[in-house]
Specification:
Blueprint (H helix, E strand, L loop, with lengths): L2 H24 L4 H7 L6 E5 L5 H8 L3 E6 L2 H14 L1 H4 L2 E5 L12 E7 L7 H9 L2 E12 L20 H7 L5 E10 L7 E9 L2
Parallel strand pairs: 1-2, 1-4, 2-3, 4-5
Antiparallel strand pairs: 5-7, 6-7
Helix pairs in contact: 1-4, 6-7
The protein binds S-adenosylmethionine.
The site of S-adenosylmethionine (SAM) has 18 residues, from loops.
Length: 207
Amino acid sequence: MSEHDRSAWEQRWSRALREHGDRVAQRPPNAHLTAEIGDLRPGRALDAGCGHGAETLWLAAGGWQVTAVDFAATALAFARSTAEAIGPDVAERIDWLEADLATWTPPPDQYDLVICLNVHVAGSVEETVQRMATGVAPGGTLFLVGHRPIDPATGAATAAAGQVQVSVEAALAALDPGQWQPLIADERPRPMAGTSVDAVIQARRRS
Ligand SMILES: C[S@@+](CC[C@H](N)C(=O)[O-])C[C@H]1O[C@@H](n2cnc3c(N)ncnc32)[C@H](O)[C@@H]1O
């Protein structure tokens, strides 16, 4: 990912938080995630590309110890102060880390849950999925969501037009079936927008 991409995200977050930070703070966590992960026993989680932190905060409130990674310092600062405003029970369960997911590799076999939601991938989706997957401990869960660039219902370009995001095909191609059991590999309606489609992948690392 180039410096240009990072500064573009910084500008995007600065403007969004300046103009409607209150609305951003109220955005609920991803509905695919809350529907599928809510019953997992809390452990250690990685939120790769955490943005303003809605999913990180939801996980921490549910008892997960979360490492939250993003390359946009503005988003991380906002997310950290939201966590602190919620209280020490949540804030102390989160490590905020500024890093570039194009090159950053999670510590191996470390996390019971790795999520990466709606992140624009700089290079190959397969390579990125495999790199994020190295962080999952045996028996742990990988949960990915990618906003599809075209709305299949209308053929219209979505907010992810022109971006490379996780697709079902690329994620499945990246995960060795000898090591991974796919639990979900679907295109599903995008919950918040009420239009468009998300690729949703959940896989369990075999023990
Ligand atoms: C569309 S937002 C999604 C945020 C959150 N995961 C969600 O689903 O609401 C994409 C986030 O990924 C971050 N991001 C994009 N490319 C990245 C990279 N190479 N390294 C780290 N963070 C990145 C952006 O800064 C942004 O916060």
